[in-house]
Specification:
The structure holds 2 protein chains of 2 kinds.
Chain A: H1 2-21, H2 33-46, H3 51-59, H4 61-82
Helix pairs in contact in A: 2-3, 3-4
Chain B: H1 6-28, H2 37-55, H3 65-89, H4 111-137
The chains are: A mainly alpha, B mainly alpha.
């Protein structure tokens, strides 16, 4: 069992090191078309000067809606946990 | 949670309006300057946490869950309907709905509406969690 775990650890470590060797150097990003599209077109398409806000609230609006739903679920869960029952 | 000393209470009372105003500024100017709904809502919730720590929960609010929780669901519904109206309009909609002046406060279409909704949602959600935890602390 210990040898299996050690072999799995070595395989995962090998994959991680292989991935780390192929990383882009810091400060020199690869060719990302989406970044250039957002930077060039975000202001005239959404009218927002803040490109981050235009992405978060317009291009990725469903993602933000999901995050709000997660927060709502957390609030409901905490309320359910800390509300005392009426019967007792 | 009992209330703290007079010094803490006075400072909290002094800082609370500025904290709330700064959070509201972050929410409203989300499409112009760095910030937005999440950050502004978190700042406003931190103001609420300050009052809660300084004054204790009894003087902040009495019944929380029964009033805040339906409001939270309502804000979530408004968010969903804004997003769905964007989706339903699709490519037929104008690119910018109202006030197409870049850099002005009244611009950017539905982004300020969505940002304000997210700000209220984060304020109410974090505030409800804080109040519920404070009610759980005291027995």
């Amino acid at each position: 069992m210990r040898y299996i775990a050690l072999a799995a650890l070595l395989v995962v470590l090998g994959f991680l090191l292989l991935g780390a060797a192929q990383l882009h150097p810091a400060g020199y990003p690869g060719k990302v078309l989406m970044d250039d599209y957002f930077i060039n077109n975000a202001q005239e398409e959404t009218g927002s000067n803040n490109v981050v806000t235009s992405i978060v609230f317009d291009y990725r609006g469903y993602d933000t809606l999901g995050e709000a739903t997660v927060l709502f679920t957390a609030a409901v869960g905490v309320t359910m946990l800390f509300t005392r029952r009426r019967g007792k | 949670m009992k209330e703290m000393s007079v010094i803490v209470k006075t400072l909290a009372k002094l800082l609370f309006p500025f904290t709330m105003m700064f959070g509201l500024y972050l929410v409203i100017h989300g499409h112009l300057t760095p910030g937005g709904g999440f950050q502004g809502g978190a700042v406003m919730a931190s103001g609420l946490a300050l009052m809660l720590v300084a004054y204790g929960r009894k003087r902040v609010v009495k019944k929380t869950g029964e009033t805040i929780l339906p409001l939270l669901g309502l804000v979530l519904f408004v968010l969903g309907s804004v997003e769905f109206s964007n989706f339903a309009l699709g490519s037929h909609a104008e690119a910018v709905a109202f006030g197409p002046n870049a850099g002005a406060l009244l611009t950017a279409g539905t982004i300020p509406v969505f940002s304000l909704g997210v700000g209220i949602e984060v304020l109410l959600g974090l505030g409800l969690i804080l109040l519920m935890l404070a009610m759980g602390v005291e027995e």
